[in-house]
Amino acid sequence: MELIVLSKEEMKRVAGEKAVDLIEDGMTIGLGTGSTVFWAIKKLGQRMKEGLRIQAIPTSKNTQTLAEQHGIPLTSFKEISQLDFTIDGADEINPQLQLIKGGGGALLREKLVAIQSRRLIIVADHSKFVPTLGAFPLPIEIVPFAWECTAKRIENLGCRPILRMDKNKPFVTDNKNYVLDCCFGTINQPTELHQRLKLLHGVIETGLFIGGVSCVILGDGQGAKMIENKEAQS
Ligand code: A5P
Description:
Blueprint: H1 8-20, E1 28-31, H2 37-49, E2 55-58, H3 61-69, E3 83-88, E4 92-93, E5 99-100, H4 107-114, E6 117-125, E7 138-142, H5 147-155, E8 160-163, E9 165-166, E10 169-170, E11 178-183, H6 190-198, E12 203-206, E13 208-209, E14 215-219, E15 224-228, H7 230-233
Parallel strand pairs: 1-2, 1-3, 3-6, 6-14
Antiparallel strand pairs: 4-5, 5-13, 7-11, 7-12, 8-11, 9-10, 14-15
The structure holds arabinose-5-phosphate.
């Protein structure tokens, strides 16, 4: 038997494409953001050309542009309130299928789209699957006004917040906010940390996605493997 060994980019591609196999005619789909979702959007564009009919809501301006380039019809929450499922990437995934997201700065819209979705399908290469969250600095979207004070409040919870920059200016999200990348070290209790952060003045959203993931599709050296969340299905 021939042994196939995929590169990291190929792992992302197979994961993204496998998620698109789950899409059926007439569905409404949330489109996440990032380099793995890129492959899902590309494949979805091909399926549209072959006659698939769906509508999608993007989680960022980048994804909106990409979807338009691939001929994917977009809608909005003015028109619909429930999506059949969302395909999105992640920066870290633990065995409980809890996530760190926001490496691309789209965490707020990603969360708002995810919670309106019947199923959340996460696509990633297998290096994102980790025993515990926290090696990846946690992105936190904050109000720009008095951001220094918000950063101090977050720091008091036991981390080192770093203002995300875009060249020599603060990085600004699609919602016109700032992002702090926060190194907490190992995050043993993500739910508690998320709740404590959300209570701080100036914090808009955290990149901790706790619960709600229906399945994770991981690309590895041989192909794409699906990890179903049994609890999400019961
Ligand atoms: C965007 O803000 C993020 O949540 C991405 O979904 C996440 O960073 C994964 O992106 P990649 O697929 O590019 O690694």
